[in-house]
Amino acid sequence: MNENNHAQTHTALGTPAAPQVHRAFPFAVAVDSSEAQLDSLQKLLAARGIGLLRAHTAADGLALAQLHVPDLIVAALSVRGLSTLDFLVAAKADQRLARVPFVVLSGAPAHADHQRRHCMSLGADAFLYRKE
User: Fold this and answer.
1) Which CATH superfamily is domain 25-129 in?
2) Distance in angstroms (rounded) separating the CA atoms of residues 68 and 40
3) Which residues are CB-contacts of 128 (< 8 A; sequence separation ≥ 6)?
4) What's the mean pLDDT in 88-115?
5) Closest C-alpha to 55, from 71, 76, 24
6) Residues near 92 by Cβ (< 8 Å), separated by ≥ 6?
7) Where exactly are the structural domains of the chain?
8) Is the dihedral of CA 105, 108, 114, 118 positive or negative?
9) What is the pLDDT of residues 58-77, one digit of tens each?
């Protein structure tokens, strides 16, 4: 263990893997274009001792998740830029993120059942409806 509180790990080929940071508390990465929704989620998680890294686009959320490897990923279905579905597929394909629970939030009940089935088929761990 070095002075930066990182543990060195190695891949099967013996090359160094990304350092693992030892955290004092769990945290999530959340993606939503609504600041109010992110505020609500942050309060809900904080009450349970879970920190939150916030992003407004799926691309930024993916970058945060790849950099920090959170304990949970929560993403609104409708965000700007890279789609949440692309984010979900990329996260599940990433060896370091594949086991991180991924929750998709939707406020659009019109096609919700189809959206839920599609997200679950892509690897989402949960699909939740919320008030917009």
Assistant:
1) Response regulator (3.40.50.2300)
2) 22
3) 103, 104, 105, 106
4) 89
5) 76
6) 98, 102, 122, 123
7) 25-129
8) negative
9) 999 999 999 999 999 999 98
